[in-house]
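Hi everyone, sorry if this is the wrong subforum. Our group has a chain we'd like a structural model of before ordering constructs, and none of us has done structure prediction before. Sequence below.
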Amino acid sequence: MYTEWKPNSWIALLFGLLFQPFVFLYVNRPRYFFFYIALTLGCIFLTQYPISAALFSEGGKAQYWPYAITIACAIHAYILSANYDVSQKRSWWAKWWTTLLSVIAVYSSVVVTKTFFYDVYSIPAASMSPALNPGDHVVVSKHGFGNYSYAGIPVLQTKSTATVQRGDIVVFRKPENETTDFIKRVIAGPGDKIYYLHKRLYLTRACDGCLEYELIDNVELDKAAESEISQYQETLDRQKYQIQQNTAKPDFIQHYFRQQGMRSGEWLVPAGHYFVMGDNRDNSLDSRYWGFVPEQNIVGKAVYIF
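Answer:
Right subforum, don't worry. Here is the predicted structure as C-alpha cells:
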C-alpha cells in the first residue's frame, strides 16, 4: 500500500554538505545526481586544460569551485526536499540508508582501484622534462608490483610479479626516504653495468654475448641556442624518448654514488635492484647520486600522461 513520504530537509542539507551529488538520490531526483557529477568532472577537466587551468587552479578566480558545488548541492537539495510533491512515488534509492550505502560502495571502489590497480600522480618538478613537466599528471598501473598503499599509507606488501623493462617510467619509494614517491626512468636492471661519461650513457646488458659498454643511441633534436638546453632522442631497447641536457653544465662526478670496486660514473646493478635516471639529465637527483632502487620499493609503472 502506498504511503505518503517526504525527504527530511535537514538530512538533505547534511547529505548535501557531506556527499554532494549523492544527496539527490535521497531526495528522489536522480537527474540532478548525474548533472552535478558531470559538473564536477567538467571542473576537474578544466583544471587540467591549459587555457583554463590558471582560472580553476590555486590562485585563479575560480579556485574555490569545489566549495561552490558543495554549497550548491546542499541548498538545492534542501529546497527540493522542502517543496517535495508527496504524491510522487518513492524510489528504492530514496532512503537515507540506501544513499549512504551508495556512497560507501562508490568510495570503496575508488579506494580499492587506487590502492591495488591504478592511481594518478601529479608532477611537482622538472626532473623528468621534457616527457613530464610540472603540473602534468600520470596514471600509474600498480597491479603486480606488490607495494600497495593509499594516500601514502601502506596497505599491503607482497612479492612483485610485474615486469620492469629498460625505458619504463616508474614510481617508487626512494631508499632511506620511503615516505615520498619519486618518478624516474629505468635505465638498467639486475646484472646490467652502466657507465655515464661526458653526458653519454654506456650500457652492458646482463646477458651472454652482449656488447661491452654499448653506447646508447642519442640523436640531437633541438640544439641549444640562447638557453643552453639541448634536446635529444634516446633509444633504449627499442623504446624511444626525449631527454634534455644543459650543454654548459658540467657533470657533478664528485657527487656521484661510488660503488665499491667500480670507477666513478660506473655502476653494476645488484640482483633485485634497478638503476633509474631523470630525462632532464642535468637537473635530476637519481641513481647516479644515491644508488639503486630495490624491486620492493617500486609502486607502479606509468601508462598514461595528461
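For your construct planning: The longest strand covers residues 181-188. The CA atoms of residues 107 and 153 lie 17 Å apart.
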